[in-house]
Amino acid sequence: MGVRVAVVGATGAVGVEMLNVLEQRDFPVDYLRPLASSRSAGKKVAFKGSDITIEELKEDSFGGIDIALFSIPDNESRHFVPYAAKAGAVVIDNSAVFRMDDDVPLIVPEVNADDIRKHKGIIANPNCSTIIMVVPVYPIHRASRVKRIVASTYQAVSGTGRAAMTELKTQSEQILAGEEVAPKVYPHQIAFNLLPHIGSFTDNAYTTEEMKMHNETRKMFGDQEIRVVATTIRVPVFRAHSEALNLELERALTPDEVRSILSSAPGVKVVDDPSRNLYPLPIDASGQDDVLVGRIRVDYSVPCGISMWISGDQLLKGAALNAVQIAEHII
Amino acid sequence: MGVRVAVVGATGAVGVEMLNVLEQRDFPVDYLRPLASSRSAGKKVAFKGSDITIEELKEDSFGGIDIALFSIPDNESRHFVPYAAKAGAVVIDNSAVFRMDDDVPLIVPEVNADDIRKHKGIIANPNCSTIIMVVPVYPIHRASRVKRIVASTYQAVSGTGRAAMTELKTQSEQILAGEEVAPKVYPHQIAFNLLPHIGSFTDNAYTTEEMKMHNETRKMFGDQEIRVVATTIRVPVFRAHSEALNLELERALTPDEVRSILSSAPGVKVVDDPSRNLYPLPIDASGQDDVLVGRIRVDYSVPCGISMWISGDQLLKGAALNAVQIAEHII
Predict the structure, then answer these.
(1) Is the dihedral of CA B10, B219, B296, A295 positive or negative?
(2) Domain residue limits at A83
(3) Do A135 and A252 lie in a common domain?
(4) Which of B141, B241, B304, B329 is catalytic?
(5) Which pLDDT belongs to residue A235?
(6) Spatial CA neighbour of A226 closest among A236, A245, A238, A213
(7) For residue A201, which of A18, B24, B81, B274 is within the disulfide window of CB 3.0 to 4.6 Å?
(8) Host H or E run for residue B50
(9) The pLDDT value given to residue A188
(10) Could you tell me how many CB contacts below 8 A there are between chain A and chain B?
(11) What CATH number has the domain bearing residue B134?
């Protein structure tokens, strides 16, 4: 018996990857219903050798659906997700809307797969930079409790969506041609530039993106003591997020111990041989399921510190792959 | 009475800026001797409306010179700087070779101009990412001692020199055209990528660049207790370095107090109004003398923490401008 799956936002950067991941992982799809806005309805998506027509997303789109994978903007998820859940589908939602709800498990399978069974119809997929951080940090946390993380991110434009990927390409071409650029997706030029502004600004002068890394990590680790302070920066890279992490542990681990822990951790690939110029690069992480971890070294500025540098594909583990992995746990 | 100045490495990315800065700041140059490798000897540089012929850098190039501004690779500085000093010139050297020598003052005028007079013929210009960090951090340190800095850098290719700036441009064009790239200056592609590798790797798995930020800050602040832990990353940006900084202070300062301190600090420009999308951007810092500081907020993860985001022109304050400012203090 296969599964009846809806992919909501099927033409978006993440939605397209959801379809790819379902196919590549041979997810037992019995029936696929791609849903999108009226603009995309009637177009076709290729799936397992068939062309399937995209239907318009409506409140009554979810009859007979077992699992609905959502990747649409927050305000649209807020409206449509409850209809899908009410129709009996288990929703795996990529938006930020439901993540902190007590009734909604927030899941990275490598961290807290057991929480999936507590769901009441909605499961939340975490923020992409949070997912990419917790995959390698959680196994370390299990070995020696992580008390504080200072995270500086280097986030790809794919996190903003397909239009931002086009904007980076177009602006880069314009600047190389000596032309003026006219930012549309971002408030400022992104090509050959950096934007210290992801999400929107909150009352404490952090961005929503920065606070997600703090709040979502606490929820998933089930640890209200861990402190995560982040500076999240958009960089002119297409589709993999990177992060410089400084961890403060309860008890010291050596870099060799950390490498050993991470070598057997699911979803992680240690790439850490500086003598051969091997370390995580976003162009290498792109298209890979694993989060790459390297530059593992003692943070000599605190008693039990570890510094590292990580890169992970934003569209895969940061979004589509994580959602499909959750779906695999459900079935 | 004017000053007889040699600019050593006059055709390099920093050397060209040294000539520009000397001219723009109306430095009292009585006589200018541009020096470079044999490859560039005989070419001309424009200075204050004249074309001046570049001479080949030799051991005996420094007769009659008062101040020699050096910006050539470390191994060449190691060889030629002592000849200039022996000939009676005061050398301001941009290389890393002499920076940690007890006899050599390491100077950022906004931090420790008074140390200039201790020189014995050689003064060192600090590492670019260190300069850009200490300009805004030192005034905070004076108000409340900085105990620890976690720095993650986002460094422009200009720091590697002119060939790297060309490589970023060429590789970007190639990738946009769907062509393969062949890295020459860097071990990996830099366009649309990030390199966690600046300088060379040391025994503790940090890079030389990362350790410079620790060691040079201690020397300039005259504080062997301050701890700086850095992850230095090359980004596809042309000429301004940016840094995410997490400061741990002895006693808490509010963001308003920090903004007030920095508003009257020399060499700093506070750009910090997120509600109007105003924050430091490397494209805005490019060509500016001041280090831009913004995103100033409480680091809630420690008792007395401040987080901030800074951008400064690598070729100007990070190198040429700082060297000329030192020369201004000498005369």
Answers:
(1) positive
(2) 3-126+319-330
(3) yes
(4) B241
(5) 98
(6) A213
(7) B274
(8) strand B50-53
(9) 98
(10) 160
(11) 3.30.360.10
